[in-house]
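Protocol step 4 of 6: structure prediction from sequence.
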Amino acid sequence: MTKKSIRILSHLLFWIFILAFFTFIYGIRRDNFVEIFKVMLGTLPIDILYTYLLIYILIPMLLLKKRYVWFIITFILSFTFVVILEWTINYFILYPSIYADYYKWKDSITYFSGTGLMIYISLGFVILLASAIKLSRYWLQSQQDKANLEIQNRKSELALLRSQVNPHFLFNTLNNIDSLIYKDQDKASDTIVKLSEIMRYFIYETDSDKVPLEKEIDYLHSFIELQRIRHKDPGFIRFQVSGSPTGKLIAPMLFIPFVENAFKHGIKGKKTPAITVDLLIQPTMLRFEVINFIDSRSDQVKDAGKGIGLANVKRRLDLIYPQKYSLSIEKTGEQYNVLLEINLL
């Protein structure tokens, strides 16, 4: 059976159980299971509609988003409305058509009588049970997402260590430092400091789910500066940050794959700068853009998965910022453009 078929069957069995349970409970009380079954069947569509309204709209949009006051108000009003609606349908439609002795006792029932209380209890039981099942599934899914995120972060960290802090990367950097020692000792010293900052960030700072945005920016800056010393043209890359990162947190190492990719595929001689990296920081949003010029014959979009991989980045974004980010990757002619926007709320 498919997942969809299993889900439909589970919902069907749930409502069959509800119908059978209350038919049995109230049928014993009245000593007539057929009449109770007909009454329960008559109001079952309302129970179904309200239950799905609660678990698929009110809970996700209000309760899970911590809008507790609005959830309580909306729940109380909607619950009361449904109870009154069901009582009215019972009183004026179902009871007269089902119970032969209805007119003997109809004047003794009100919204607050035992009949009304039965509706409160039965509807409350249904939505409580359905909500408990749904919230349990939400909790289990969140736990699974956290586990997946932890695994993904570890994979990302290892992939970055292999792709960037590898012998080739260290050889190039140390070779550049060696040549700088004889030409510019101060610059060589600064380069060693930047390399140590990158190593420290990899080893000690990326264990957390979120890091201060300032540290992520410092890391990007150090990485770009190490790459810059390999090129004679100091204007080969432009890195610009707009806005204040103070007090903001970000998942570690989300930006570096795109910058690494730009260095890997970017070509000099087209325009200056050949690579531009712009980070715009707003109170509730980050806008990160990387533009670089490439060989028109390059298949950069497909090859971008080397190293950490675009699929890896997108998966992390899905887990960390579900429905709170947009990622656009475009290749137009000789220009490659990546635009990532993240909602921080």
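Step 5 (inspection) to follow. The longest helix spans residues 114-163.
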